[in-house]
Amino acid sequence: MMATNSILGGVLQLVDMVIVGFIWYPFLRMLDKQPDSVL
């Protein structure tokens, strides 16, 4: 993560979190539909 002392740094971090969330959400949903015995 790039650390900056400006509002832009916080916005970039939030955008990065949202992008990672959208990327991981389908995978987490697929894992959710599988039996618990897999874990």
What is the total tally of β strands? 0
Oligomer: single chain
Low-confidence stretches: none
Spatial gap, N to C terminus: 30 Å
Structural class: mainly alpha
In percent, how helical is the residue content? 55-70%
Question: What is the general shape?
Answer: rod-shaped
Overall average residue pLDDT: 82
Order of helices and strands: H
Fraction of residues in β-strands: under 5%
Count of discrete alpha- or pi-helical segments spanning 4 or more residues: 1
What is the gist of this entry?
This protein is mostly helical and 39 residues long.
Please give the structural blueprint.
Elements: H1 7-33
Give a description of the structure:
- The protein is mostly helical.
- Helix content is 69%, strand content 0%.
- It contains one helix and no strands.
- The two termini are 30 Å apart.
- The model has no long low-confidence stretch (mean pLDDT 82).
- Keywords: Membrane, Transmembrane, Transmembrane helix.
- It comes from Streptococcus anginosus DORA_7.
